[in-house]
Amino acid sequence: MSSEAWLIRKAKKGDTKAYGELIQLHKDYFYRNAFCYVKNVDLAGDVFQEAVTIGMLSIKDLKNPNYFRTWMTRIIYNCANEMFRKAEREIGLCLLANLTLTVLGLAQGDGAWFALRSLLECMGSILATLLVLGGITTASEWRRIYAPGWKKILYTLTFPLFMLTYLPISMAALFMKVEWKPIHHGVKLAGLPTAAEPR
User: Fold this and answer.
1) What are the C-alpha distances in Å from 153 to residues 58, 135, 142?
2) In a 3-state reduction of DSSP, which class is residue 182?
3) What does the alpha-carbon distance between residue 150 and residue 13 come to, in Å, rounded to a whole number?
4) Position 120 pLDDT exceeds 80
5) Which residue from 69, 80, 64, 63 is spatially nearest to 22, judged by alpha carbons?
6) What is the pLDDT of residues 48-102, one digit of tens each?
7) What is the average pLDDT across 176-195?
8) Rounded Cα gap, residues 163 and 137, in angstroms
9) Distance between CA atoms of 72 and 25, rounded to whole angstroms?
């Protein structure tokens, strides 16, 4: 019996130290998977931590110890999927609330111009916030973004417009079950950050 199989057996019996050693064995692999799904160093850390916690609580359900990595990768995928679903619902609720207030303003006779101005101010603040967040992310990840400087700046400036394409998805997420499916690319994992790298 391999040392990994022995650790899995102990972890299934509730040994948290053995589970911790198992995670350490595959930490970089799991972190890279999380990064591939969310494309963000900090979010990948959050997904990784959430998956490790869920894995610890449910390892007793692991049927075949040979598929531990596959099993944990599936948990990572589900955690990333849930994170995206929550974000879509929050954006959709915010927009729905603003649209409702705009319609109520029109119904109360505040005038079409007032309602339109209110909606435009709301959208303007959302776009400004996204621009600031995109700028902060670009500045902090400048060396890790493999593109010429002018493209980095261009992508930062167009980021809020790109995010507007999520409006229909966010509205749909409020009323129906939406599945997020990752797009698999032929990217070498060697160039991606590992969990051991400082953030």
Assistant:
1) 44, 8, 10
2) coil
3) 55
4) no
5) 69
6) 999 999 999 999 988 888 889 889 999 998 888 888 777 766 666 666 776 776 6
7) 61
8) 15
9) 13
Q: What is the DSSP letter of 132?
A: H
Burial of 97 per CB tally in 10 Å (0-12, 13-18, 19+): exposed
The helix, strand and coil proportions of the chain, stated in percent and rounded to the nearest 5, come to 80, 0, 20
Using one digit for the tens of pLDDT, what is the confidence trace for 129-151? 778 878 888 888 888 888 888 98
**25 residue type, one letter:** L
Q: Among 10, 5, 52, 4, which Cα is nearest to 30's?
A: 52
Q: What does 36-96 look like in DSSP terms, one character per residue?
A: HHH--HHHHHHHHHHHHHHHHHHGGG---GGGHHHHHHHHHHHHHHHHHHHHHHHHHHHHH
| Element containing residue 14 per DSSP (H, E) | none
Q: 127-147 burial, b if ≥16 CB within 10 A, otherwise e?
A: eeebbeebeebbeeeeeeeee
Q: What is the mean pLDDT of residues 41-48?
A: 84
Paired tokens of 32? 């890279």
Token code pair at residue 47? 């997904």
Residues 6+ apart with CB under 8 A from 60: 12, 14
